Structure formats: C-alpha cells, structure tokens
Amino acid sequence: MTSKLTSFLFLFICFMSSAQTLKGKVVDAKTNAPLEMVSVYFDNTTIGTTTNENGAFSIDYNDAVQSTLVISFLGYDKYYMSDYRNQNDIVIKLKESLEQLDEVVITTDDGMSRAEKLRWFRKEFLGKSENGKSCKILNEKDLRFRYNKRTKTLTAWSNSPVLIKNKSLQYEISFDIEDFEIVLGNWNAQSVIYTGTTFYKDLNTSNKKRFIKNRKRAYEGSIQHFMRALYNQRLTEEGYVFGLRGFVVMPNDYFSILSVDKNGYKKVNLKQKVDVFYKSFFESTIQTDYSKEFAVDKFGNYDAIQNVLFGGDMGSQRVGDTLPLDYALK
Known about the structure:
Oligomer: single chain
Distance between the termini: 17 Å
Mean pLDDT: 88
Structural class: alpha+beta
Low-confidence stretches: 1-17, 101-107
C-alpha cells in the first residue's frame, strides 16, 4: 500500500467515534410471539447478529454505519429501518409473507436449460475477475429462474438469501435478492441489473497476509475507493486521472461538490460523462442518468445508486469483487 493510501485510510480511522448499541425485540405481527434466529444486520457490512429465544437482539454500530438496518426471517416480509440512531428498546413486528412465487416456471420449457441459466447467473452475479471466479454459491438449489425467449431476458430469485463463499477475499456473503435481470445479446450480456441486501461474514479471522493483500488489491480502484476519494476531494492524490475525448481534464472542472448536509452527505454534480483511469491498468467511465446530482458520504456510501452509471473496469465489478462498507474503517 502506498504511503498516500495509508494516510488516507488512517484519516478515515480517525473519523470513528465511540460505538453505540441498539437493542430491540422482534415479534410476529399477529401473535406478538417472539421470533428466534431472525437475522439483524446493517446492509452491506460485517455488522450483524441474530435474535435469541426471546426475540431480543443487541447490535453495536458507529459513525461508519450509514446503512439501512435489515431485519430478515424466512417466511416473513423483510423490515427496513433507517432512523435507528439514538433509539433503543425497539419492538419490530414482522408480517408473514403473502407472496408465493410461481413454482410452475421451474419445470416449464422456456428454451434454456437450468445448467445454462446457472452459468449465466454465476458469470454475471459473481463476476469474471479472479475474485469472482474464486466464489462458490453454497445453495444453488434454492435459485429459481425464468427465461423470456422473446425479450432474451433471464430473471432470477430465491426464497432464501444466496450464500456465497469468496475464497480469494475470505468472506461468506449472504445476498438477499430483490431483483435480478440479465438481457442477453448474441454472446454477451447487454445489461445486468441486480439489487438486494447484503451481509458479510469475515472468514479471515487470523489476519493472514495473503487475504489482506487480496482485499487491498480489490479495494484500490474500486467504486468504494473512488467514492471515498471523491468525498474528500482527493481524486488526484489517490491516483485517479480523468479524460475527455482523448485529453486529460481536471476533475474539479466536471465534479461540483457542495458542503456536508445534516445527514453527513455531500451533494455531487457531474456535468457530463468522463473517462476515469486508475494507475495504468484500470479504465472506466462515469456518468449520471436522469439527474446529474447524487450524494456521497465520507465512508463511500452514495445515494441514488441507480442513477450513477459506471462503465469499463468499475462497471464490470460484481459481487465477487465487493468489500463491506466498513472495510478498513475499524
């Protein structure tokens, strides 16, 4: 790690404040009976727990956690909570899920075998990088697919979270799919859209240097790294170079960054699509859709994700390349 990046990460560590604890209880909305083994976690982080036999939970967090709190239990609708700060002893009532996915599509001949669907899913969900190739889905049998021959669209879902073991980065990832869609071309995917909530379990508990190095490599040049540098207006110092029609341009001429709002976000306005280069081997593009404005905080969280479009290397990053939002901030 270069001295600049080390200083940058140290700056983030200094931002950390004392931990807060959120305590609560999860019950059935109809019977008020406590629910045991309910997953309670901050989306896209390693911070999570489960309820005990009384439905109670306790979870610590700090300023690095800007994510939504997710309460998830099989057979019930997921519950999302964003206003958890300075709250305690909360009671969350989960409603039984009324949605029953059509199981008929599993056996219907739609022109694509399950093996082919799985191949496309692994490729576009896990990614084609070395990190993506090191991933293994632990519960593929739970995946369900539907293929539309007319539109060449493959959709996927699962009644339980998709469990992935990332051997290269040493995380076990639980990804609860909300939407997954691939529009296929002749040989490659024309577009890939997937959304959901994510929880990371750190498997590198002994801090082996090989996996620490792999994570550092995955972080540098990632969207997460880019957004943190953007917030701190350190894009050039962090090694990013910008181009437009073959000419090097200055980031300040294209990114307008406003002051921090009450929620800790900075509003960012991107004037037009620009090329983004990191070191000598990452080439990407960034542009905004619909609105030119989005929000980012000092930890790399950014709002209106669907309106910020990345192409090239950053656009090809998939689940296998991602790190939790609390990476390097402990």
